[in-house]
Design a protein that fits this description.
heterodimer; A: alpha/beta; D-Maltodextrin-Binding Protein, domain 2; about 20% strand; B: about 290 residues; mainly alpha; 2 strands
């Protein structure tokens, strides 16, 4: 009797996993910058569509794209663009990554509230994170060493910031933190710290100053908190937040992406502190969705 | 009939025991064979003795693991320095001083300590131990080797305590009786008779605790800052071999030099922990013989 019961339980467990892993189950994986936003979107979507199930996990953009290539997820969140190496890899296993832009981020450089400095140029940021300048005094601040907080190499933000701001290697002394939230926590406690995070993580954060950044010396300083500065491109480190799908999306994935791009979806984007899509990206998405 | 059944059961248990050996050999050969291709492109001397690890570089790739090895040893030795005296004192207390009642409560508590997930300990490192260390040493932040050492000490304590206690308990009662009969105080008996008699067991306990500390990943990943530069002091950030593997293996493209090099790091780590555990085992057996 007992044995039969055990067998029955096991059979039931299999049946259950089977029914969920069908068409109604979506696996989304990747960017830590996007995780909170996509989780909120997924929750709202599941509320509206009973019976659908979406699992959102993090791990970094690189991890997400690798998972998409290995067939371990349906949608990859990425805060950077896919690299040509990754496209090659994907094509070699018959995966065709298609990109959709779901939100715009003003990548925010933050320091502690106790640090009097509140604006820097791109050039100065590059020097700081390459490790060429190591004391706040250089910029008219207090005489204290600069402690760098960045992300780990599986992060899309790590890549994006390096590509756009550093154009070189990070200082080996930069602390490699696990996620955006950890950087914000660290900066709150460290008066000498500087770090970079997605704007969605600083909207409600106390204890940190969001830097205004100028594209070059002499240019106007702009803030990532201003939708206008980000949209107009005046803020120099704004970036699209992307999702990658294998081939033109269909079925459950398409349905969810359409929800993300809908008015309601974009309202959630704004609530989470990011910015809604400008027209060029709306157009771009139409093409890649095959609409 | 009965004999056949007996034989079958005997065979089954033998297979089970053998299975573990196969798994161990399998892991070892997987590490060896997957890391070999890395050394077609990386000079093994450079791999072991260069301090610059930057496989995902913007300018120049380099694969040197010295900084990681140093980091790993720093947090491990730091953990032992903290956990060794604490662990032995607790073990001596539990085996000789504590009353029956206290022991019944304290022993399970020590065992529960071993069951706390490492990620929880890492979390404590970020929100509690880190700020505390920053305050004590007047630093700007607490993400450093000391933080990692304190947390690893907490994680190694249960192992050290329970094995040291076993070692102390296995010292024949006659030693203790003889010591007390000669007029030694209980303190003198513990420090000068029982601990020296159990010393090989205690050393083995510490080696096993060390093995635990070397291989621990999540805690050090969260609490030590993980800057890849060569550590300058115990109060600076460190990045251990385990955290490097954990951070990078998730996103590395398969079958690249970087991928193979990470397995190389794993192999070095495996060899180190294997040596530590084996030494512990040899010392422990020696202890058993002496006691018998």
């Amino acid at each position: 009797m007992k044995k039969i019961l055990i067998l029955l339980t096991i059979a039931l467990m299999f049946a259950y996993t089977h029914s969920v892993s069908a068409d109604d189950m979506l696996q989304i994986k990747g960017s830590d910058t996007l995780i909170n936003l996509v989780q909120r979107l997924a929750e709202r979507y599941m509320e509206k569509n009973g019976g659908k199930y979406i699992a959102v996990t993090g791990g970094g953009s690189g991890t997400g794209i690798a998972a998409l290539i290995n067939g371990k997820c349906d949608i990859a969140n990425a805060s950077r663009l896919i690299k040509s190496k990754e496209i090659e890899q994907a094509n070699s296993v018959n995966v065709d990554p298609k990109r959709v832009v779901v939100a715009v981020d003003g990548l925010s450089v933050i320091v502690s509230k106790d640090n009097p400095i509140d604006k820097l140029t791109m050039d100065e940021l590059g020097k700081i994170f390459r490790g060429e300048v190591t004391n706040w005094q250089e910029f008219g601040g207090k005489n204290m060493p600069i402690t760098l907080y960045g992300r780990q190499s599986n992060s899309g933000t790590f890549d994006f910031f390096r590509e756009v701001v550093l154009k070189g290697d990070y200082s080996p002394k930069m602390n490699r933190m696990n996620g955006n939230a950890q950087i914000v926590e660290a900066i709150k406690q460290d008066a000498s710290g500087i770090g970079y995070v997605g704007v969605g993580y600083v909207k409600n954060a106390n204890g940190v100053t969001v830097m205004r950044v100028a594209s070059r010396a002499g240019a106007d300083y702009a803030s990532p908190l201003s939708a206008q500065d980000v949209k107009s491109g005046k803020y120099p480190i704004a970036r699209p937040l992307n999702q990658y799908i294998n081939g033109t999306p269909k079925g459950a994935a398409k349905d969810f992406i359409l929800f993300e791009l809908s008015e309601e979806g974009q309202r959630i984007v704004e609530e989470e502190g990011f910015f809604v899509l400008p027209n060029e990206y709306v157009e771009f998405n139409r093409n890649s969705m095959g609409l | 009939m009965c004999r056949i059944k007996e034989r079958l059961i005997h065979g089954l248990f033998f297979l089970n025991g053998f299975f573990v050996v196969i798994i161990l050999l399998g892991i070892f050969s997987l590490l060896v064979f997957t890391s070999i291709p890395a050394f077609k492109e990386i000079n093994i001397i450079e791999f072991l003795f260069s301090a610059v690890w930057n496989p995902d570089a913007y300018v120049k790739h380099s694969y040197g693991i010295l900084a990681m090895i140093v980091s790993t040893f720093m947090v491990t030795v730091g953990a032992l320095v903290i956990a060794f005296p604490l662990g032995i004192a607790t073990a001596a207390y539990l085996s000789d001083v504590a009353g029956q009642r206290t022991r019944e409560i304290a022993k399970p508590v020590v065992e529960i300590l071993a069951g706390i997930p490492s990620v929880v300990i890492g979390f404590l490192g970020i929100v509690m131990v880190g700020p505390l260390i920053a305050k004590i040493f007047h630093l700007h932040n607490g993400l450093n080797a000391v933080n990692g050492s304190v947390l690893l000490a907490v994680m190694a304590l249960p192992t050290i305590i329970s094995i040291s206690e076993d070692a102390l308990n296995s010292v024949p009662v006659s030693y203790e009786e003889a010591s007390l009969a000669l007029g030694a105080t209980p303190w003198q008996t513990i420090v000068r008779v029982k601990i020296p008699a159990a010393v090989s067991g205690i050393i083995a306990a510490c080696m096993l605790g060390m093995g635990r500390a070397i291989g621990e990943t999540m805690t050090v990943l969260m609490a030590t800052g993980c800057a890849p530069a060569m550590p300058e002091s115990f109060l600076g950030p460190v990045r251990t071999m385990t955290s490097t593997i954990a951070i990078e293996l998730g996103e590395v493209p398969y079958n690249t030099t970087h991928y193979y090099a990470l397995f190389g790091v794993g192999l070095v780590l495996f060899i180190i922990t294997f040596l530590v555990n084996m030494t512990a085992d040899i010392v422990l057996h020696k202890h058993e013989k002496i006691v018998k």
